[in-house]
Amino acid sequence: MRDDGGNVLYHEGTLESITERKKLEAQLRHAQKMESIGTLAGGIAHDFNNILTTIMGYCSLITMKAGEKNPLLVYVNQIMEAANRASTLTQSLLAFSRRQTVEAKPVDVNESIRGVEKLFRRIIGEDIELRTTLSRERLIVIIGDGHMGQLLMNLATNARDAMPDGGILSIKTEQVHLSGEVAKTHGGKEGAYVAIEVSDTGKGMDETTKDQIFDPFFTTKDVGKGTGLGLSIVYGIVHQNKGYIDVSSEPGKGATFTIYLPLAEPVSTEDIPREKAGLRGGNEVILVAEDNAQVREIVATTLRDFGYTVVEAFDGEDAIEKFRANGGAIDLLLLDLIMPRKNGKETYVELQKTRPDIRVLLMSGYTGDILSSKGISREGIPMITKPVAVEKLLRQIREILDNKPSQLSLFP
């Protein structure tokens, strides 16, 4: 503002803090980066799972056919062990990419922590003190089978490695309410959440390390002392279960990882039946539709070795033609979920018009988000994930064939 002589009397202006906006922009960029890395990791894992299905399948057949004293079994077992290690790696990549297929169930968070407390103490060693502060309320979340244990173990291992000279590992749980604004920042919804806080008194992290801490294969450890997948798996599991994770840390001041998972109402669950010992075959007719020739061959070979009649198809359209050509004599559809021309869902829906009671078992190397994008509800769907273990495949097929045909509409 100036006077009549043109002299400045005072200045007027508006100040706007853009701190929050910059924070949101940084979180968005990070989310986009993690999504891109996840897509790449999931695709790689899917391709490897097809290869591993073939390797592990033939190893199992050799083991079954060779005598117990066959000296070659030593080499076969070594191959299987290597394949199992590779399978663990692909499952880690799938966990990060959130493309695992898992059965979600109600889990009591506090009981889970109490259940692994003794194991924690063995893992972290005697020079690290474990402190737990658990909510008096019963905190139930819906989470994938085995996910809670994996989350806790990975975070405990990370904390241990951050305190080579000893320290304190603290675990705290509580129920919190997140406002719409806070939840929206992380892509979630307003409501009640379970907060699981895991803190250590270790060396802490600078901002550069914090920005990369969840990237697959990123590690601050010496070569050979870590895969760099532990926290990546935590990140993937949390987001797969509709939660999110915050990290606060400064160099020399330790680190705190806080996981937020949606609070659920207690639900009664039925005991999971144990698998019966031994492998059983049958004389039923199974239509196997799989676009990967090697996977299709090992699956078909295994089923024939156990007495089944197998009709092979290289994609969904071919499966429909083979089904019609066999006069509806098919007892079970074993369909790869993702195939050219017609996928597993579309194939099943088409064949169900002719045979509403037809039994089905889907298989895939990665599903998770893809199931939802294809409009497939996980609930009630018989599913087997790649790499397909021969023993599990045979047992699951037998379970489906021995039960009455499901009248449940698996697809909308």
Which key features would you list for this structure?
412 residues; alpha/beta; Helix Hairpins; Heat Shock Protein 90; Rossmann fold; 3 domains; five-stranded mixed beta sheet; five-stranded parallel beta sheet; 12 helices; 12 strands
Topology at a glance:
Blueprint: H1 19-65, H2 73-97, E1 104-108, H3 109-124, E2 128-133, E3 140-144, H4 147-162, E4 167-178, H5 180-185, E5 191-200, H6 207-212, H7 230-240, E6 244-249, E7 255-262, E8 285-289, H8 293-305, E9 309-313, H9 316-325, E10 332-336, H10 344-354, E11 359-364, H11 369-373, E12 383-385, H12 390-402
Parallel strand pairs: 2-4, 8-9, 8-10, 10-11, 11-12
Antiparallel strand pairs: 1-3, 4-5, 5-7, 6-7
Helix pairs in contact: 1-2, 1-8, 2-7, 3-4, 4-7, 9-10
Overview of this protein structure:
The chain has 412 residues and is α/β, with parallel strands linked by helices. It folds into three domains: 19-97, Helix Hairpins (Orthogonal Bundle); 104-262, Heat Shock Protein 90, CATH 3.30.565.10; 285-402, Rossmann fold (3-Layer(aba) Sandwich), CATH 3.40.50.2300. The protein has twelve helices and twelve strands. The strands form three sheets. Strands 2-4-5-7-6 form a five-stranded mixed sheet. The longest helix is centred in the N-terminal third of the chain and has 47 residues, at 19-65. The termini are far apart.
Overall body shape: globular
Stretches with pLDDT under 50, minimum 5 residues: 269-277, 406-412
Mean pLDDT: 80
Number of domains: 3
Contiguous helical run count: 12
Run of helices and strands: HHEHEEHEHEHHEEEHEHEHEHEH
- Name of the CATH first level of the largest domain: Alpha Beta
Judged by helices, strands and strand pairing, the structural class is alpha/beta
Name the helicity range.
Answer: 40-55%
Report the end-to-end length measured between terminal Cα atoms. Answer: 67 Å
The total strand number stands at 12
CATH topology grouping of the largest domain? Heat Shock Protein 90
Oligomer: single chain
| Strand residues, percent | 15-25%
What CATH architecture of the largest domain do you see?
Answer: 2-Layer Sandwich
- Rg value: 26 Å
Going across the biggest sheet, name each strand in turn: 2-4-5-7-6
Spell out the CATH superfamily of the largest domain.
Answer: Histidine kinase-like ATPase, C-terminal domain
Largest pleated sheet: 5 strands, mixed
